[in-house]
Amino acid sequence: MAIVTPGGDQGFHERLIQAGVEAIPETEATTRDVRPARVGLLNLMPRSAMETTEVQWFQYMGEEVLQVEPVLVKFDDDWRERDGASRQQILRRYTPFSEVRERGLDGLIVTGDNLEIKQHIGFASRDPIPDDDIKYMRSLEQVLNWARENVQSTIYSCLAGHLALRYFHGLPRQVGGEKTLGVFEHDVVDPSSPFTRGMNDTIHSPHSRWGFISPEEIARVPDLGVLAINDEVGWLLVEEENEAGGRDLYVQGHPEYGRLDLHGEYMRDREEDGKIPKHYYKDEEPGEENVRQTWATDARALHANFVAMLYEKFSRGSSADQA
């Protein structure tokens, strides 16, 4: 959010700018549009997790002063909406991509999916699922191409981040020997980014994934910048300038998770996997009463920065107005 400085105090305005504060002159503030930011959610999760995912991504944005208009997005002729499919009913609430594209978006979030390893579709091995085996991959690529050129900022979460990095830059996604599960502390290595503005030097975030793209692979691409990283589990946030004049964010963890989301995953998978989320339960003793949420403030800051970036753009004439 921006500080509006009095028109007759240029020195105060410049000192705020030098301190890294988003500031605008009073004369400019009076001309700004304050309509809600249109933020799309392309929800790739299984039916059982779709409604939870909707809440996860908008819960922190709902705490902001600026208004956000969620736009739930589905693929055109989405195969997941076929007769008898598990997602058929819920996808009726979603808007086809062609309609969303016509009106435009200020921001977009592309969620992860459970299609990480072959054992999730009936195989015994834990090899990564090839992109070509993901049925919606061609439809997803259409959205990726459009968003890169027309949306001020897109967040690619977990598997979607890996798929986007593979599609745009050819970076290989690998699968570890065990699932990365827990809440981890990350060093903020670039506090100058609009995504990390105002954050502490270390931030917390949940992780829940099999796959990863190594920091060494990220470093091979000059256009990619690591914003936050952990020595044990790798990067959390990577940013890149896009062709719409904004910035996109690749997220390898789950800062959008609520307090009990990891607990729910543990309870669901404990008989199959048995792995306890690290740094999540008090004294590492599983139980709802022992959950310690340590990432909420960091999640709020990240989401606030995302919304502020959208506001900064659309207040001067947004992609959603120009599409």
Question: What descriptive keywords fit this protein?
Answer:
323 residues, alpha/beta, 10-stranded mixed β-sheet, two-stranded parallel sheet, 11 helices, 31% helix, 23% strand
Structure, explained:
- The protein is an alpha/beta fold and 323 residues long.
- The protein is built from eleven helices and twelve strands.
- It has a ten-stranded mixed sheet. The protein has a two-stranded parallel ribbon with strand order 1-2.
- Helix 3 (47-59) links the parallel strand 3 (37-42) and strand 4 (68-74).
Percent range for β-strand residues: 15-25%
Order of helices and strands: EHEHEHEHEHEHEHEEHEEEHHH
Protein structure class: alpha/beta
- Fraction of helical residues: 25-40%
Low-confidence spans:
none
Spatial gap, N to C terminus: 24 Å
Number of strands: 12
Radius of gyration over all CA atoms, rounded: 20 Å
Strand order of the largest sheet: 5-4-3-6-7-12-11-10-8-9
